[in-house]
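I hope you will forgive my troubling you with a question about protein structure. I am sending you one protein, given as its amino acid sequence and as whole-number tokens for its backbone shapes. Thank you for your consideration; the sequence and its tokens are set out here:
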Amino acid sequence: MTPTRPTLILTLTAALLGHASAQTEPAQTAPTPAPTSLLTQTQSAAQAAAEARDLILKARSAYPAGSANIDQTLWKQAAAAAETAVSAAPGNPDYLKLRAQIYTEVGFWKQAESAWAAYFRAAPAAGTPESQMAATVQYNLGYSAYTRNMPDQAATFFAACLQLDPNSVPCATWAARTALEAGNYTQAQTLYARAVTLNPADKTLTYFQGLAQSAGRYGPAATRAFSRAYGDREAGRKTQALAGFQEAARSAPNFTEAQREAGRLALELGNTQAALDAYTALNALPSPTAADKFNLALATEAQQYGLNAVQTYRAAYQKYTAGDKTAAEAGFLAATQQNPRYAKAWAWLGRTRYEAKNYAGAAEAYTQAVTLDPTDKSSAYYLKLAQQGK
């Protein structure tokens, strides 16, 4: 499961209430029971609960799916009716559950947390669906704390979520991440192993499981910066992610994955200097990969001629090696147009033209290549042949 900004879809609410929706928690105030002056003298707790259920159905019909909010009139009225029922019969588990379900569906997480706690006190043997809904509340409180940079609180909420729902992949994932960022590497490894067991197809979980095993070499500051940067990249915040990977690499220059991610992202963003810095550092570490060496050459050349021109040239070269020489010639020409000082692109443009027996065109291209790079003996040799038409 790829960690993202996730307010869980409350499918469990559908099982219990007939439909589900949730949203992030705004600045809200809890509804209060309707004044007794507004109730008929014969209205009972059961009637208030029935009114709450009726208002729930009306709210779901009136508002777009997924937009439930405690500040919407019908939802506020439903919550107030549920509060009235609880006030009239404070020990009734059904009314306590109804109130908790409403606050969960509208994403009023702190109020929902208190409501579920009250329900569990009245119904200590509650079933799995209720525990899973309460776990969803803890998860959202945890994620909110995480985004507010309150990792200790986040970890507490995620742990509570796992107590309520041991099979929650989101809670296992984020409990592992908070442990990793806090430098609790043994705990992080245990939690990532748990999350991978629950969701073995998630490659991101497997990736972070491996990171947790090696994170001790980098330290909490670098690991935390890397983890946050990874989340930013997954959310599409590429500039912010690049800064995070660079921060991780500065904190731990031996952090190969931080250097590698910074380099990749810098190339995506067209930041050739940042890419060159990252791949230079990466290739100075033990055992750089072939891809690391390739990307260092790419970044070095891009810094001189521009990334677009280099990428165009390399794409043309791949077409040439694949045997599509017509497309290759067009690509080499485009690279020279993107940067007329790109000697290598001129040389290969000359080659494709020469092989097509376009000697005049080849001579033109080779002339440019030799002018830009007088040490290019191969281009000088074929220039003479092209000029001779052979």
About this structure: The longest helix spans residues 128-147. The CA atoms of residues 226 and 245 lie 5 Å apart. The chain has a mean pLDDT of 89.
